[in-house]
Design brief:
single chain; alpha/beta; Rossmann fold; six-stranded parallel sheet; about 45% helix
Length: about 210
Amino acid sequence: MCKIIAVLNQKGGAGKTTIATNLARALQSDNNKVLLVDSDPQGSARDWNAASDGELVSVIGLDRSTLAKDIQSIKTNQDFIVIDGAPQIAELAVAAIKCADFILIPVQPSPYDIWACEDLVDIIKARQEVTDGLPKAAFVISRSIKNTQLSNEIGEALTGYELPVLQAFTTQRVIYAKSAAAGLSVLDMDSTGDAAKEVQAIANEIKGIINA
């Protein structure tokens, strides 16, 4: 059965596309059939796909409020669908939440990013109240800077939202931007590197939560 993972944060620059593209590749590396859905009208995931001539992950654009319905018609024969969410477009976030099995919320170690999550969390919780706690949802810390006090404290700051924070996270590394510019993932650029290990850890933790 196809599992749908939506990477959402209504604040721009939270690292959604970086995490969505790399997550899709990490899931694919386990011999899963993976489709990446770009629901952002800016088309960043589609641009990433075009940079590699579409050779890595199948990517389609669905950036209308009919997203939930459209995905139901294309999920056959897929193991995972990863949705790269659109910032600041509430109706697309609602549509993604309606069809997702799991919501991943990237948050940078910044008070502004933490505050910006409130509306999205409210939408997720409203959905969970009428669907027996589904979809599952969790934060993932994005672009953490190692050994800084703010990065160490962000997990604690997010507990007020009453959603779990993944133990896995990404750190600020040049390879994320470098691989994206080439239309690659960090796994393609350095499969045994620290960034690849970060992404694979996120994918494994998400699969564990979905299957629990």
